[in-house]
Design brief:
Layout (H helix, E strand, L loop, with lengths): L24 H12 L21 H8 L2 H10 L35 E9 L2 E6 L15 E3 L4 E2 L16 E4 L2 E3 L24 E3 L1 E4 L4 E10 L1 H4 L4 E5 L6 E3 L1 H7 L8 E7 L14 H8 L11 E7 L2 H8 L13 H22 L7 E9 L22 E6 L16 E6 L2 E12 L5 E7 L4 H4 L6 E7 L7 H4 L15 H11 L22 H8 L5 H12 L4 E6 L5 H15 L4 E6 L2 H13 L7 E4 L2 H4 L11 H15 L7 H12 L8 H9 L8 H9 L3 E5 H10 L9 E7 L6 H8 L6 E6 L14 H7 L3 H8 L2 E4 L1 E2 L4 H10 L5 E2 L7 H7 L5 E6 L4 H4 L1 E4 L2 E4 H18 L5 E5 L2 H10 L7 E4 L10 E5 L4 E2 L3 H4 L1 H8 L6 E6 L3 E2 L2 H8 L6 E3 H7 L19 H30 L25
Helix pairs in contact: 8-23, 13-14, 14-15, 17-18, 17-20, 18-19, 18-20, 28-29, 28-33
């Protein structure tokens, strides 16, 4: 086969030939020259051209306007340059380094190709193609070009200075030239080693245009440690940017700044608009990716700091003490408010940048197929059994880099990526990955969207796809973050300002006594007895005091530090109803960090016998999903259409006001049937592109809700761009549930838009705080996350809910000793008697030991940083089945794990069994179950922060209203003081082998004690027989010893071998000795 034949685009060139005449490199080169002109003109990877709308960014505009013909013309135009002599250096003076380089903003005339500077080193720079099509189909010589001082910038005359150009710069290459001293044999003819710059000695860039750059001016940056970047390069995080920025050493030297780890400075940042290894519009990406992956390294261009400027000394000092800024400035001064917002935005940007570190930007062209969970029904512990049966379909595929194995730790569970299927982009999430001995990474993934219609796309899926990771689009948090003038128009006496002063200064606010009402006819709060009458909920004295404070006092912030199941959700629902009754013209907000927690508040509110106020929950249809736990009866997507139709019926459709027209327009847009009359016809005749009011504004004016529920993110978004923006000055109170999970940046973002609102924070200071990337520096954590809840408990009057409900007394005592102080026992549920009777032990925390020690015996496996154990998983499955059989299907069971990998395996093994929750401890926050099974998995509890984290352990042990079963490796080493302390407080009779618990629950597969693995099912009968015989021998021996002692006491000699005369049935009823 001719290696230059266009019909074999995946074949690599080779200089070797069986023809003796063509065996020399010169002959091979001449033959290659003759045929290169025909390459790239009629290939199937170039499809019909598509028109692309223009972009405001010049680089994107030029890229999108580049066509297939431009690529063909450039490839063909390069061949005459093989005979051209090297370009002589211009005789003029070198380029100036003082003035900005001129650049183009429109597509140039003539053949061209877009290249991107990859690296600048020494006397040349290496560039890679922007479009994959440039080097595809037997043009490995174009996979990498070199720019030297002999290259000519057409708009910037003079001898080229490489240091004037930046990594990530995009240029339009207009011509190539042969490098001085290049031999014909230096022409790159193979894709083997094509990304090694030593294999590209033939071409140099001749003439080119620089494409206009995009800069961010005067951005605040913070230097990161090299341990975070995992390279020797210096890197910064920049305010308003969600990726890290690179910086050249010469920029640091020129700035005169010392590159210390905590350095802050102003920077000018070059933000590349184009990335390498992109595709032309309309290309067959699957075919093209397969043909080009051998030379695509996944190189990604990051922003580059081009200039650094020293911060003013005063600003630098203020930022470093941002977490205590009001110790320096008075609250009337605008300076501290600017510092709060500047520092908060920098810290939030840094955390978002941490989410985008260590990505794999390779494109992988593979064949994916739907994973059917019944593929291996006989082997529940197969590799594929680790895939969790989410409410959606699972795809399976393998990836591998051409120049080495793909990095499995970049494709671990929870990794988001995109999948291109014939031009359709589908967002996916990795459920499990396995590094195979062959070097491939086997990946199981699900579609992020659980919409039933979209899930049909994956039904019986078996197609060629291109999978790739992208920079995570997490800029929504920055989009809704205020600029530094955010507090400019807010009065000093506003509750948000008073609250922030306390948080940053450390002053203690004196509690304001709340007035009490004397009328017993009113629904307003008087005492807990009245609450029972009006709301059917008995309140403790602390709960009553909280409701009095939030309803009747003017205190800027109220704090409740509550124990687990202390009634936070209920008091939020009650106080919200009372507030709406007391101030019906004001708006009151109740929010939480998750949709699940918010839905629970709404359900408590709707369960109240007497609740008042028009209420709505702000939630999108996508956030509601298919899980009924996330849905309530007052969700905006559910009620808006009915409320608009009722309004139109009340006004009889006759008004032609903007509000009526808007209501009709939105109902028609969503194809909701309404009564037709002259007004609806008028709307049809107007044919409006947009109505007078948005859907949110229409709903707000018609319904006029006075109670708003939603997540913090939803409320913040609505204050900036949605329903609450017009009425933000009418919001009187905001109550945060699970406030221990809130960061300071969230309070800043929501508080700037609520100048009149009072706040209340209800959380548990002894449980998990907001998630912060472990690599985020301490300073950035302080200015953006700032242990917000612990500071509120120290600065504001704090009420302590220390009475826990629906919790066993022994659990309360143990957790009070380990985490809390002086917990009291509230009302408990009595649904554990049957389970206690079966276990013959009433202690609510049971330790279940499973056999193991070394990895091979335990069956412990690792995937990335996660662990799995098949013995532990099978034991848990048996326990869940037994409890469900004993207690009924309505019994709520939560399976919590320390490791994501084990959570995935458990979800698979428990397929078909109704389990309320399966997941990690960290994701179980704010959930409650009747029974919890906590899987520790590991055989080594190290003395590290992961195991010593008391809040995580507290969350794990407080999710259950009844028993908590903790699985533990029988040979686990306990170096962790926290776990050692916990196990030391659990009585010995509550430490048992798993088979004993299963036996107590009438589960007969007791195998672990005798060393048989769960997969060895053929030995189960033999094991049961050994157990039976062992128990008989123990019982007979004990009966004989007891009888011998009795005879000795009576002075009679025990008859020899009498106990062998007949089999003993037991000591007691039925024994031959009775």
């Amino acid at each position: 086969m001719n290696p230059c034949d266009p019909s074999s685009p995946n074949e690599a060139w080779s200089s070797s030939s069986t023809d003796s005449e063509a065996s020399s490199p010169e002959a091979a080169f001449e033959r290659m020259i003759e045929k290169l002109d025909a390459i790239g003109h009629d290939h199937d990877y170039l499809k019909k051209e598509e028109k692309t709308p223009g972009s405001k960014i010049p680089a994107l505009r030029i890229s999108s306007s580049t066509t297939k013909q431009d690529i063909r013309d450039f490839r063909s135009s390069t061949m005459p340059y093989t005979e051209a002599k090297p370009t002589d250096p211009p005789s003029s003076e070198p380029q100036s380094s003082d003035s900005p380089l001129l650049a183009i903003s429109q597509k140039p005339m003539g053949p061209y190709a877009i290249y991107i500077i990859q690296e600048i080193s020494g006397n040349y720079s290496t560039l890679v193609p922007h479009h994959r099509e440039i080097a595809a189909n037997n043009r490995p010589d174009l996979c990498m070009l070199k720019m030297t001082p002999r290259s000519k910038d057409l708009l910037n005359p003079g001898r080229l200075k490489l240091k004037n150009y930046l990594p990530g710069d995009a240029i339009c290459v207009m011509s190539l030239c042969r490098a001085p001293g290049a031999w014909d044999s230096d022409f790159c003819m193979s894709y083997d080693g094509v990304m090694n710059s030593e294999n590209h000695k033939f071409w140099e860039i001749g003439e080119f245009y620089l494409i206009q750059r995009e800069f961010k001016e005067k951005e605040l940056v913070y230097k990161m440690s090299t341990t975070v970047t995992m390279t020797k390069k210096h890197a910064f995080v920049a305010s308003g940017c969600n990726v890290m920025c690179e910086v050249q050493r010469r920029v640091l030297r020129r700035s005169g700044l010392r590159p210390s780890v905590d350095m802050m400075a102003y920077a000018k940042i070059f933000t590349p608009s184009l990335q390498p290894e992109s595709f032309l519009k309309g290309s067959d990406r699957n075919h093209l990716t397969r043909g080009t992956n051998s030379y695509c390294s996944g190189f990604h261009v990051y922003p580059t700091v081009t200039e650094l400027f020293k911060l003013p000394d005063e600003l630098n000092e203020d930022l470093k003490m941002a977490d205590r800024i009001f110790q320096k400035y008075d609250s009337e001064n605008p300076r501290p408010w600017e510092i709060l917002l500047i520092a908060g935005k920098l810290g939030l940007s840094a955390n978002l940048a941490m989410e985008n570190k260590h990505k794999d930007f390779m494109h992988y062209a593979r064949r994916a197929r739907e994973f059917h969970r019944d593929e291996n029904p006989e082997d529940p512990l197969s590799l594929e059994s680790k895939i969790p049966p989410r409410k959606g379909r699972i795809l399976k595929f393998r990836i591998r880099k051409e120049n080495g194995p793909a990095l499995q730790h970049r494709w671990c569970r929870g990794t988001f990526f995109s999948m291109n299927v014939s031009g359709k982009i589908v967002d996916m999430e990795v459920e499990h990955s396995i590094l195979e001995p062959s070097g491939y990474v086997l990946i199981f993934a699900s579609m992020i969207s659980k919409n039933a219609q979209e899930q049909k796309f994956l039904r019986n899926f078996r197609k060629n796809v291109v999978v790739f990771q992208r920079i995570q689009n997490n800029l929504h948090g920055l989009k809704n973050f205020p600029n530094e003038e955010g507090f400019e128009n807010i009065l000093k006496t506003s509750p948000i300002k008073e609250s922030l002063v306390v948080l940053r200064k450390g002053n203690l606010v004196q509690p304001q006594p709340a007035p009490r009402r004397k009328s017993t006819q009113s629904k307003e709060l008087i005492s807990s007895k009245d609450h029972s009458r009006f709301f059917g909920y008995p309140l403790t004295q602390d709960q009553e005091e909280y409701i009095n404070t939030i309803v009747y006092s003017n205190q800027p912030a109220t704090v409740v530090d509550s124990c687990f199941r202390g009634g936070k959700t209920s008091v939020i629902a009650i106080s919200t109803s009372l507030l709406s009754s007391k101030e019906p013209e004001k708006i009151h907000v109740a929010c939480a960090t998750t949709n699940l927690a918010t839905a629970e508040i709404v359900r408590k509110f709707l369960e109240l016998p007497t609740w008042s106020g028009k209420a709505v929950r702000l939630v999108s249809e996508a956030a509601r999903g298919s899980d009924p736990k996330n849905k309530t009866d007052i969700d905006f997507p559910k009620i808006w259409s009915d409320r608009l139709k009722w309004y139109l019926e009340d006004v009889e459709y006759d008004e032609e006001s903007d509000l009526v027209i808007s209501a009709i327009w939105h109902l028609k847009k969503h194809r909701i049937q309404i009564h037709q009359n002259s007004t609806t016809k008028l709307v049809d005749e107007l044919d409006l592109e947009s109505p007078p009011f948005s859907l949110f504004e229409t709903f707000l004016q018609i319904v006029q809700p006075r109670i708003i529920f939603g997540t913090i993110a939803a409320i913040t978004e609505s204050l900036y761009h949605g329903m609450l923006a017009p009425v933000k000055n009418d919001i009187e109170t905001v109550q945060f549930d699970e406030a221990s999970r809130i960061g300071l940046h969230e309070l800043l973002a929501i508080g700037v838009n609520l100048p009149n609102a009072r706040f209340s924070f209800l959380g548990d200071s002894r449980q998990l705080s907001p998630f912060v990337d472990e690599d985020l520096p301490k300073f950035l954590k302080a200015v953006s996350f700032a242990e917000l809840f612990s500071r509120t408990t120290n600065g504001f009057p704090c009420l302590n809910f220390r009475e826990t409900f629906n919790t066993p007394k022994l659990t309360t005592d143990l957790l009070s000793h380990m985490f809390y102080q002086r917990l009291t026992q509230g009302k408990t549920i009595d649904n554990m008697k049957l389970l206690s009777a079966k276990l013959k032990n009433q202690f609510p925390i049971q330790i279940l030991r499973f056999e193991g020690g070394d990895e091979e015996k335990v069956g412990q496996e690792s995937t990335g940083n996660s662990l799995m154990s098949k013995n532990e998983a099978e034991l848990t499955k048996g326990l869940v089945e037994s409890i469900k059989k004993l207690m009924g299907s309505s019994f709520k069971i939560g399976v919590l794990t320390l490791y994501k990998g084990q959570a995935g395996r458990m979800t698979t093994l428990l397929k078909g069994i109704e389990v309320d929750f399966i997941g990690t401890v960290d994701s179980s926050h704010a959930r409650n179950f009747d029974v919890v099974i906590l899987l520790t998995t590991t055989s080594h509890f190290r003395k590290k922060s992961f195991f010593e984290n008391l809040p995580r352990l507290n969350v794990a042990l407080t999710r259950s209203r009844g028993f908590t079963f903790v699985t533990l490796n029988s040979k686990a080493t306990l170096e962790s003081s926290s776990w050692d302390r916990l196990l030391g407080q659990i009585p010995g009779e509550a430490h048992r082998f798993g088979w004993e618990i299963l036996n107590a629950l009438e589960k007969v597969e007791r195998r672990l004690q005798y060393g048989y693995g769960y997969e060895d099912r053929s030995n189960w009968d033999r094991v049961e027989e050994r157990i039976r015989r062992s128990e008989i021998r123990k019982r007979d021996f004990q009966m004989v010893m007891d009888h011998q002692t009795t005879r000795r006491d009576c002075g009679r000699k025990f008859p020899r071998n009498h106990h062998h005369s007949k089999p003993l049935k037991g000591y007691g009823y039925g024994s031959p000795y009775n």
